[in-house]
Amino acid sequence: MTLEQAKTGEKLIIKNIEDPQMRVKAIRFGVTEGTEITCTEKLPYGPVVIRRGHQELAIGRGLARRITVEPA
Is the pTM of this model over 0.70? Predict the structure, then answer.
């Protein structure tokens, strides 16, 4: 399943970030393969908001389609 398909409130583990450049950017925010996150909000036609610890990140739908996740 991709991050774009996640439901609000769902706890997830990131399995893969396809794009190498996006993977590097995600690492800067502490989001890597194996990280547990929570999908806190999905804005209609907008970004997917995730939480890791006390940090929230808004991830665009295009990138969210290329991040593979599984239920935690």
Answer: yes
